[in-house]
């Protein structure tokens, strides 16, 4: 059961309104850092790779993919192994590093200071709304309007999520920053598929996006690291999410299977199940240090964070106890 201080009809009408472009501001040249009122300097082109490198290594360094040989060693029956990418289609997990800029209906954004100190800077037009997690505002223009809403639900209560929702309305500039040291990225929703993220990964979204808590089954809730309740993102719009550490992306081909250890998930649009990673018996799994993990099956995309918050907290406890 949900109580809201604002009517949903008004929110729906906002999502259907065509807003004017955000206000423009004077450009400051010769500034390598960029910003909403500054010149954006794209990263330099990649340096050419020496021909002395192995061809596969050179190809992987250029575009993150390699061409696997089609001839198989004796007795292995080819490289078309179930759960692996087809020959010539393998792509490694790729970085999402670098400033990210874009526009949406009624605004524009820039994600900067990536990997550990990320911030998201918005320019909103008159009347353009943006929903965000409470408490993540770093700064905003005096022309902006902030309105808080209180939404209670049993799922939010059980998930430990915040009951408040902050809605910022333009015109002006808005800067959002995550609570933890990590990265930010944007997901584009086109209405053709649904994404799922841990509830703590949510940062902000446009008014046309629907995000609601859904329940994972007992096994996923206990061992995925994302908890029993996750956000399911649907409809059309943009969603900005946060991570602990940098964010890397893995594209899965149809039928390809891929393990992600619990505590490293940021966003995914394909199904997974919990399985034991290490082969062999219980002793093998215990000594390898890897237990149950999330096994994804393509096609789909998985975003992962490079640090585990629970592992980091445990390391701090150990360091504090030994000092």
TrEMBL record:
SUPFAM superfamilies: TRAP-like (SSF51219). It is found in: Mitochondrion. GO terms for cellular component: mitochondrion. Residues 1-50, 65-84 are annotated as: Disordered. Keywords: Mitochondrion. The keyword Secreted does not apply. Its main location: mitochondrion. Pfam families: AIM24 (PF01987). The keyword Mitochondrion applies. Belongs to the AIM24 family. This is Altered inheritance of mitochondria protein 24, mitochondrial. It comes from Penicillium malachiteum.
């Amino acid at each position: 059961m949900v109580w809201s201080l604002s009517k949903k009809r008004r929110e729906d009408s906002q999502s259907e309104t065509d807003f004017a472009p955000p206000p423009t501001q004077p450009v400051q040249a010769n500034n390598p850092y960029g910003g909403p009122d500054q010149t954006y300097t794209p990263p330099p082109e990649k340096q050419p790779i020496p021909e002395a490198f192995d061809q596969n290594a050179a190809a992987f360094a250029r575009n993150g993919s390699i061409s696997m040989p089609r001839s198989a060693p004796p007795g292995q029956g080819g490289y078309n192994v179930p759960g692996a990418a087809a020959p010539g289609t393998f792509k490694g997990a790729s970085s999402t590093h670098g400033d990210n800029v874009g526009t949406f209906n009624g605004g524009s954004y820039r994600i900067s200071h990536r990997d550990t100190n990320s911030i998201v800077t918005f320019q909103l037009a008159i009347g353009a709304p943006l929903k965000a997690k409470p408490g993540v505002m770093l700064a905003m223009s005096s022309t902006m309007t902030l309105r808080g809403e209180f939404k209670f639900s049993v799922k939010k209560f059980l998930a430990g999520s915040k009951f408040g929702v902050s809605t910022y309305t333009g015109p002006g500039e808005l800067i959002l920053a995550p609570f933890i040291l990590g990265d930010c990225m944007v997901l584009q929703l086109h209405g053709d598929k649904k994404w799922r993220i841990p509830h703590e990964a949510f940062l902000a979204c446009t008014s046309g996006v629907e995000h609601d808590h859904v329940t994972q089954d007992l096994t996923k809730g206990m061992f995925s690291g994302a908890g029993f309740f996750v956000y399911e993102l649907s409809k059309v719009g943009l969603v900005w999410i946060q991570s602990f550490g940098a964010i890397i992306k893995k594209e899965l081909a149809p039928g390809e299977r891929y393990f992600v250890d619990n505590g490293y998930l940021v966003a995914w649009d394909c199904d997974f199940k919990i399985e034991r990673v290490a082969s062999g018996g219980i002793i093998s799994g215990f000594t390898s240090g890897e237990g149950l993990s999330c096994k994804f099956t393509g096609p789909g995309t998985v975003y992962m964070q490079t640090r585990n918050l629970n592992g980091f907290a445990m390391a701090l406890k150990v360091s504090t106890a030994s000092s």
